[in-house]
């Protein structure tokens, strides 16, 4: 940006101009624009034909603005070291930096302390003004102004007014430097944030990949766990069925033996009436034993069929939960008739589920039968409560509780295991709660927990997502 001033020494330098210039400078906060404007003002108002602003850098001074009144114009922020530049008197600048006082030369080649200065000798400037820019006692920069052809440019009158301008320059530069520093800090942190953001994005992607891998591992695990538990189940069923079938086989062979014996006696006409009587007694006992054991085997097969819940046999449908629970309880009426066992249902009338009602049937039946057989074993009375409460928008909690005899922690730990029963010699198969567990976890995608206190009762808490 070239200055267009053609005057050697501006005449109009007065307070008015300085105030105007100050206003211009104080309105500029961006360093490179400020420096340009400043140099422009200096060249127009001081009588200098070239001017430099030097800023400290480490232990040296560098030229950050140079301005020429002729066509070269003004360049800023080139950061040229003063020694290398050969454009200013290095001695004068160091002198000003050291003494913090102006150096004013009216005829530099002939008068003053710098007549032998290499720069002065080489370039022969007539007027030189070098002034420190001091803010709150701190040297923040140095202005160096020269007029090569005219002597006595920087008179003391002129300087008085110029000092006002220099003060404004000092403050404006200080502000702009702070601003630039802040801006670079902001840029730096913005950059850091950007870098971190990118890193986070990459990490997020990696996490997503890992998560997907984990999910597939989990699915596989679940599958193999299912297979394992199915294997256990089959082994268990085989083992359980073996006993009654074995007893049945023994009984049947025994029956065969005694029948053959009787036939033998009969065919040789040696059979006595007492033989027949003895045979009939044994045959009745043995067939009884066979029947009981075959029934037991049939029961086990029935339970096993329930474990492998056959989804195909049931349709998913929309049903009113409370109404359905009432129907379930109704089907239990014959069992409860004439007893002191009561079932209470606490459920909102208008909860509608889109699900498999049969699952709920099996779950409730197993709970109730267990309460009757295990919970109220030695008591003649008891109460069962089925409580349904919504948890969040799409989750229901089903709490089933009885006030029976409860169970020990040891028992409670195992109740969901297949074939775990404390009633092996009665009719227990140990499959009931295992079936319930499978229904809740695998079919309803829910969770089931049991809280039981010996002597007080048992509660099962089922949470499952639902849609209507
Ligand atoms: N309401 C209850 N009160 C006390 N004990 C219970 C209750 N429900 C279940 N149990 C215990 O859990 C065991 C496992 O139950 P379950 O799987 O239904 O098998 P089963 O009824 O054939 O024994 C029972 O043998 C019993 O010890
Ligand atoms: Mg049971």
Write the layout of secondary structure elements.
Blueprint: H1 15-26, H2 31-45, E1 50-57, E2 60-68, E3 73-81, H3 82-85, H4 90-99, E4 103-105, H5 118-123, E5 127-135, E6 138-147, H6 156-267, H7 273-307, E7 317-320, H8 321-336, E8 340-346, E9 352-355, H9 357-375, E10 381-390, E11 395-402, H10 409-414, H11 432-443, E12 447-453, E13 457-465
Parallel strand pairs: 8-10
Antiparallel strand pairs: 1-2, 1-6, 2-3, 4-5, 5-6, 7-9, 10-11, 11-13, 12-13
Helix pairs in contact: 1-2, 1-6, 2-6, 6-7, 8-9, 9-11
List keywords for this structure.
alpha+beta; Beta-Lactamase; Heat Shock Protein 90; 3 domains; six-stranded antiparallel beta sheet; disordered N terminus; binds adenosine-5'-diphosphate; binds magnesium ion
* Helix and strand run: HHEEEHHEHEEHHEHEEHEEHHEE
- The CATH homologous superfamily of the largest domain is named GAF domain
CATH-level-2 architecture of the largest domain: 2-Layer Sandwich
Low-confidence stretches: 1-9
C-alpha Rg (nearest Å): 52 Å
Largest sheet: 6 strands, antiparallel
End-to-end Cα distance: 77 Å
Quickly count the helices.
11
What is the CATH third-level topology name of the largest domain? Beta-Lactamase
Helix content: 40-55%
How much of the polypeptide forms β-strand, as a percent range?
Answer: 15-25%
């Amino acid at each position: 940006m070239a200055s267009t001033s053609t005057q050697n020494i501006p005449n109009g330098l007065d307070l008015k101009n300085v105030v105007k210039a100050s206003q211009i400078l104080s309105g500029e906060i961006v360093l490179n624009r400020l420096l340009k404007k400043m140099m422009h003002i200096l060249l127009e108002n001081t009588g200098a034909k070239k001017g430099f602003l030097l800023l400290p850098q480490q232990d040296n001074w560098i030229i950050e603005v140079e301005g020429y009144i002729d066509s070269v114009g003004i360049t800023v922020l080139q950061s040229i070291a003063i020694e290398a530049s050969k454009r200013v008197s290095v001695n004068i600048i160091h002198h000003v930096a050291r003494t913090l006082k102006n150096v004013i030369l009216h005829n530099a080649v002939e008068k003053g302390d710098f007549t032998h200065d290499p720069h002065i000798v080489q370039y022969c400037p007539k007027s030189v003004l070098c002034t420190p820019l001091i803010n709150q006692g701190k040297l923040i920069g140095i202005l160096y102004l020269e007029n090569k052809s005219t002597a006595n440019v920087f008179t003391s009158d002129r300087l008085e007014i110029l000092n006002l301008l220099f003060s404004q320059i000092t403050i404006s530069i200080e502000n702009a430097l702070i601003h630039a520093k802040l801006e670079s800090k902001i840029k730096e942190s913005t950059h850091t944030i950007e870098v971190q953001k990118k890193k986070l994005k990459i990490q997020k992607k990696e996490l997503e990949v890992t998560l997907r891998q984990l999910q597939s591992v989990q699915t596989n695990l679940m599958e193999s766990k299912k297979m394992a538990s199915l294997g256990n189940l089959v082994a268990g069923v085989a083992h359980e069925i073996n006993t009654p079938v074995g007893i049945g086989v023994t009984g049947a062979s025994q029956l065969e033996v005694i029948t053959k014996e009787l036939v033998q006696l009969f065919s040789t006409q040696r059979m006595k009436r007492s033989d027949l009587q003895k045979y009939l007694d044994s045959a009745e006992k043995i067939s009884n034993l066979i029947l009981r054991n075959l029934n037991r085997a049939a029961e086990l097969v029935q339970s096993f069929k329930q474990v492998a819940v056959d989804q195909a046999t049931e349709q998913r449908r929309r049903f009113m939960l409370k109404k359905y629970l009432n129907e379930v309880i109704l089907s239990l009426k014959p069992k409860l008739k004439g007893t002191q066992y009561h079932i209470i249902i606490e459920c909102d009338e208008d909860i509608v589920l889109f699900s498999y009602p049969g699952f709920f049937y099996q779950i409730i039946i197993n709970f109730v039968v267990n309460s009757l057989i295990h919970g109220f074993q030695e008591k003649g009375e008891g109460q069962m409560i089925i409580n349904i409460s919504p948890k969040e928008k799409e989750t229901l909690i089903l709490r089933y509780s009885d006030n029976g005899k409860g169970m020990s922690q040891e028992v409670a730990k195992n109740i969901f295991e297949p074939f775990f029963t404390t009633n092996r010699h009665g009719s227990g198969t140990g499959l009931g709660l295992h079936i319930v567990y499978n229904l809740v976890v695998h079919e309803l995608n829910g969770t089931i927990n049991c809280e039981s206190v010996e002597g007080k009762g048992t509660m099962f808490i089922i949470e499952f997502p639902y849609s209507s």
